[in-house]
Specification:
The complex is a heterodimer of chains A (264) and B (299).
Chain A lengths: L13 E12 L2 E12 L3 E5 L6 H8 L7 E6 L2 E2 L2 E4 L2 E4 L2 H8 L2 E4 L11 H13 L3 H14 L15 H13 L5 E5 L7 H16 L4 E4 L3 H7 L2 E6 L2 E6 L1 H6 L4 H10 L1
Parallel strand pairs in A: 3-10, 3-11, 8-9, 9-10
Antiparallel strand pairs in A: 1-2, 1-4, 4-5, 6-7, 11-12
Chain B lengths: L35 H23 L5 H8 L2 H32 L4 H16 L2 H9 L1 H4 L2 E5 L5 E6 H4 L2 H27 L2 H9 L4 H31 L11 H12 L2 H30 L6
Antiparallel strand pairs in B: 1-2
Classes of the chains: A alpha/beta (264), B mainly alpha (299).
Chain lengths: 264, 299
């Protein structure tokens, strides 16, 4: 499973540490040795062509995908494994589920629960996973809905909302657990062009308030405006990373230049 | 439905294809296409239907007085109750075991998957009537049933002959048969729920059993219900097969009565009307249960 030579002691100020992560699906190497650190309060935007492994990388951070080699830690805690001596033991599902309550995840297709109302969607995890009293969870849900501009939609069902509204509910749902880290997997890719702005505005607002976020997206303008770090991935590797001004305007690698020339 | 689909053709001028100009054509009247053959079909169907109803009322062979006499007779009502009990126990036990089998087939363990698959294969292959007779004759195979440590000493035991009476043999047979079909219906329902749903629930850290009960199963119910209702209704009528074991359910009781008084047709009608009546009640129930699980759905 894991190489024993790699150090599993996280750096002090890193919220997310990814070390030498490998992942393969059958004969396909999706991640071929990823190293990445994300400092608390920073926004990291991951760019790359489809099939470059960026979504898979995001999904390994909350253990929706297991890694084949390497390790990931969030806020100083190993994700999905427990270290004992030079071995990593896979955690039980219940322990993994508890770890996930500290990491919010927003999906490309929203994945709201269609049979529950908006407010039921939001209080489900705080009540069921953290054991919060329902009254307290409802108050938090109300506050979060106001924050994403949907205070009047609490009793609506997801199908009664536009795509942009659904994604904003999904963000409120992720925030309800008060996570240390928010992961966004192409949050605007399933939206009509005119609805992209309202979702990006909510994410920008979160960035301004110092939420640690990793965002996989194709929105170059958003990356330029909000990111502290831009990471460019191709074929399972990080090709280059740095400040948005450097990576987007003065890319050092030919592959990055080729990609940017197509999407800009 | 239309029997004629030709476009209306103006005999004098042929198909009229000129676009009306703005002046003088503001008040054009739309004439719907006529369906003369449809009226012929309606008339013919009405005549056949009238003949059938006339026959039901006037043909003395139906013996409606005998029907009325037996429809609410004590023995028949008792038999209806037995039929309902067989349906209820068969459904509850069958679906309980079916849900277990469905999750065995969806499990990560190859062994559990294989066992569930083998069960479903076996019980779908054996005709219900054959299986019922097997259970009825269980005492031939196992003289006593003993509870204890597997392959070790037993704590207490039952005489199989007393334990598996006709009624419990029937319930057992119906439930085991039903479980094989219920398992596939439940599995189909769970598979119909988008993967993203349990993934989102897992990403939110919702405990596993709660993911199932609160997120996956309520959505699976939407595709389970129509099929499950079919199964329950077919089990309800299928209980008549139990008459081979001389259990006093509706069909058996009706046979007993017409065996005594020779009024075959009116007594078959007694059973028929009870089956229709109770199936209709089940269909109404189905409607309301489906409506409950359609919360938040667009259609």
């Amino acid at each position: 499973m894991s190489s024993t030579t790699e150090d599993t002691t996280p750096t002090p100020d890193a919220m997310v540490e990814i070390r030498s992560v490998h992942k393969r699906f059958g004969s396909l190497d999706v991640l071929r040795g990823i190293d990445l650190s994300v400092r608390a309060g920073e926004v990291t935007v991951v760019l790359g062509p489809s099939g470059s492994g960026k979504s898979t990388l995001l999904r390994t951070i909350n253990h929706l995908e297991k890694v084949d080699r390497g390790w990931i830690s969030v806020d100083g805690t190993l994700i999905g494994y427990r270290r004992d001596g030079d071995k990593l033991y896979e955690l039980r599902e219940r322990e993994v589920l508890r770890q996930r309550t500290r990491i919010g995840f927003v999906f490309q297709n929203f994945n709201l629960f269609p049979h529950l109302t908006v407010v039921e969607n939001i209080i489900e995890a705080p009540v069921a996973a953290l054991g919060r009293p329902k009254k307290e969870a409802l108050a938090t849900a109300e506050r979060l809905l106001a924050r994403v501009g949907l205070a009047d939609k609490a009793e609506a069902y997801p199908k009664q909302l536009s795509g942009g509204q659904q994604q904003r509910v999904a963000i409120a749902r992720a925030l309800a657990l008060e996570p240390k880290l928010l992961l966004f997997d192409e949050p605007t890719s399933a939206l009509d062009p005119e609805l992209v702005g309202e979702v990006l505005d909510v994410i920008k607002d979160l960035a301004l308030q110092g939420t640690t976020m990793i965002v996989v997206t194709h929105e170059i303008g958003f990356a330029r405006e909000v990111a502290d770090t831009v990471v460019f991935m191709d074929e399972g590797r990080i090709v280059e990373q740095g400040a948005p001004g450097d990576v987007l305007d003065r890319p050092r690698h030919e592959r990055t230049r080729a990609f940017l020339s197509k999407v800009l | 439905m239309s029997l004629t689909s030709d476009p209306p053709i103006d005999k004098a001028t042929g198909p009229h294809t000129t676009v009306p100009t703005a002046t003088g054509h503001d008040a054009l009247t739309v004439v719907p296409v006529r369906h003369p053959w449809r009226w012929v079909a309606v008339a013919a169907t009405a005549v056949v239907l009238a003949q059938f109803l006339h026959g039901l009322i006037t043909n003395p062979g139906w013996e409606w007085d005998v029907f009325a006499q037996f429809f609410t007779a004590g023995t028949i009502l008792k038999a209806v109750w037995v039929t309902l009990q067989l349906t209820l126990y068969g459904t509850v036990l069958g679906f309980a075991l079916g849900i277990v089998l469905a999750f065995m087939r969806l499990s990560g363990s190859r062994f559990l998957r294989a066992v569930a698959y083998a069960y479903i294969w076996a019980f779908r292959s054996i005709p219900l009537i054959v299986q019922l007779l097997f259970w009825f004759n269980l005492a031939y195979l196992y003289k006593e049933l003993r509870f204890g440590i597997p392959f070790g000493p037993g704590f207490f035991s039952f005489d199989t002959m007393n334990l598996v009476g006709a009624m419990s043999a029937a319930v057992l047979g119906l439930a085991l048969h039903q479980a094989a079909y219920a398992a596939e219906i439940v599995r189909g329902g769970v598979l119909a729920v988008d993967d993203g749903q349990s993934e989102a629930a897992a990403a939110l850290g919702i405990p596993r059993h709660r993911q199932l009960r609160r997120i996956v199963l309520p959505q699976a119910m939407r595709s389970i219900l129509p099929n499950a209702a079919n199964e329950i209704i077919s089990l309800f009528k299928g209980t008549s097969i139990v008459s081979v074991m001389a259990i006093g359910e509706l069909f058996y009781q009706v046979q007993v009565v017409y065996g005594r008084n020779g009024r075959v047709v009116p007594l078959l009608m007694v059973a028929t009307v009870w089956y229709i009546l109770l199936t209709s009640v089940l269909s109404v129930l189905q409607h309301y249960v489906e409506r409950h699980y359609a919360k938040g759905a667009a259609r």
